[in-house]
Amino acid sequence: MATSNKLPVPKGSHAPLSSLSQEAAAAESPKSTDSRPPTEGKNPKTKKSRKDGAEDVPGFKGLKESAAKVESLKAPTTSKLKDIGEASFGPPRAKAETVHGPDNRVRITNTADYPWRVHASLLITAADNSNWIGTGWFIGPHTLITAGHVVYIKNSGVPGRDGWVKSIDVMPGRNASTLPYGKVTSKNFRTVVGWANSGDENFDYGAIIIPTELGNTTGWFGFGVYSDATLKASVGNISGYPGDKASGTQWYDAHKIDSVNARKVYYDIDTFGGQSGSACYRIINGARYGIAIHAYGGASTNSGTRIVTPVFQNMVNWKA
Questions:
Q1: Is residue 40 part of a domain?
Q2: Domain range spanning residue 181?
Q3: Number of domains composing the chain
């Protein structure tokens, strides 16, 4: 699991933490144009994307106008489980992922193909043995990116629940009861000081390190640091495993990026609880690049943690 091309380790709120050991070092910024390319894995059967920057999904009606401007295994039953975000934010979630107006999400059924198999359904067991659902996405053979609140629970108010989760079952390309690439369990997680110490949503990102090289089969997304102007001119794509749909089914939507700030990307892409940790990605010449980690909702836009320089540094260093 050796990782090459390491970058300097961020300081401050972006200083990384591991569920297995503490990580710390001096930080230095790479160029804002830095990115890491995707790979499509083995036998990808990749579907070409649309010219407007969205995926070419049957039944997807296109970009809407902004309301604000392996071996198959038996899948676990997750239909009655709640989004991992509720473990930290409590019910009802004031910042739950949201469907704005008509629900434009489309179910993905060819989940064994790239890019859909890069997205993984997560079954999370917290420290108190409660179970939750979420979503993650591959960036390397051993590494999936997700929200910080997926791997580290904050301010639950429940004795024994806060802190690192106990384990996560990772199920890439899950399609209801079908697991085309099986299931792998991880107890090895990453997040950063800004989330673990303060629960600050601006630092709500983390990683899952799995003990197999399953990402070599599924492939993974690239990721990069992009300017405000580039992001605002981009189409955001999100696919994941929402809890309001049939258990373990993957759903997709896309929309132009609404706005950005120094830490967040905002978009009117329909999502729901269970999609915490999904990739918000853009398509560049047919290749998929993550731009944010989906985590929150709002009255008119949902949002994700923006991949800025220190987030990028951590992702490169976590990629294994």
A1: no
A2: 12-19+49-64+81-318
A3: 1
Tokens of 202: 């601006």
User: Does the active-site annotation cover 255?
Assistant: no
Catalytic residue among 149, 156, 278, 294: 149
CATH of the domain at 273: 2.40.10.10
Q: Which pLDDT score is estimated for 2?
A: 42
User: What is 158-184 written as a DSSP string?
Assistant: STTTSEE-SEEEEEET-BTTB-TT--E
At 71 the pLDDT is 39
Burial (Cβ within 10 Å: 0-12, 13-18, ≥19) of residue 129: exposed
Q: Which residues of the chain have pLDDT under 70?
A: 1-5, 21-35, 63-74, 79-80, 83, 90-100
pTM, entire model: 0.83
| pLDDT at res. 79 | 66
pLDDT at 29: 32
**Is the CB of residue 275 less than 8 Å from the CB of residue 241?**
yes
Q: Hey, what are 7's tokens?
A: 């970058």
Whether residue 273 is contained in a domain is answered as yes
Q: Which of 88, 186, 234, 276 is catalytic?
A: 276
The partner residues of 124 in beta bridges, in order of sequence, read: 132, 168
Query: What integer pLDDT is reported at residue 47 of this predicted model?
Result: 74
Nearest to 167 by CA among 188, 153, 143, 192: 188
Does 196 map to a domain?
yes
72 is an active site residue:
no
What pLDDT, on the 0 to 100 scale, is given for residue 82? 74
Cβ contact 88:94 at 8 Å: no
Residue 265 placed within a domain: yes
Let me know: does 240 contact 84? Beta carbons within 8 Å: no
Residue 122 DSSP SS3: strand
